[in-house]
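Data availability (excerpt). The following record was deposited with the supplementary files.
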Amino acid sequence: MPFGLDLPLGATHGAGTVVMVDGIKMLEVPLWRSYLAGCILLGIAPCTAMVLVWGYLSRGNDGLTLVMVAINSLTMLIFWLGYGLARLLKLRYIDAAPAAMIGASNHFEVAIATSTMLFGLSSGAALATVVGVLIEVPLMLMLVKICLKTTHWFKTAEMGAAAEKPMTV
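Predicted structure:
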């Protein structure tokens, strides 16, 4: 059961029903919904997501906060947007690769904390967000390999010494 929620047995909350397991009230949510919620949280979990909350609580400019979070979230779309934009802007490869990588990275700890607080530690949502952490390293290594194989997209004279001898991954 989410923290701070004290519903009677049999009550419904969202897609779940309050049940008693080993003397503890829990919110029973269909597993597929729980996994889906975890995947959604994982996808929208840049650390800037909390900026909306902190900006609101501090009575900051909500419009500006929303625009900044939206721009940051757009840079996360899985890497190609940033890498392609770097190519169009004729950035050097040594600048384009890290710019694309930061856009592809995600802050899974926010998704894990949120899913645990909303759905509980033993939920499918928490499991889905934890599995995301295990997927991050192979996924990011794949993106590194893509960068190394596409150095020719950028002008050789502008790449710098680091990109002239790419490492193998």
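Summary of structural features: Residues 124-149 form the longest helix (26 residues).
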